[in-house]
From TrEMBL:
Source superkingdom: Bacteria
Organism: Ruegeria arenilitoris
UniProtKB keywords: Membrane, Transmembrane, Transmembrane helix
Protein's recorded name: PH domain-containing protein
Ranges annotated as spanning the membrane: 19-36
Amino acid sequence: MADPVTFAPDKGAYVRTNAWLAAGAMAGAMLVLWLIGNPYVWTGAPAGLAAVGVRAWYLASEELVANWQMTDTTLTGPGGRSVPLNQIAAVNIMGSFVQIVTKGGDKHLIKYQADPATTKAAIERAMA
């Protein structure tokens, strides 16, 4: 049996993902304020940035230690998640996330990967 492969979250991917989320929140908040006729549309930008920034800071201690390990037969993740490789129906890339879809319809995310295409390829090679 080969050594397990670990898919660890990348801090840079975490920051980039949350920066994009913040940009979307800033634009969305400004749009809502504009649509309701608020004369201070600009206040949506700092509000969206603050909301996502606080969320990212608060969740970093949990998200950046959520490792997944893959053996010859199983993909094991945080919270007791375990997916036999022969039960994986699809492996998808969603930004910095790799989504695992099982034949039973369960979905799991391997979050904040520095190179999600490499993670996907490694899983697909192990499935073959």
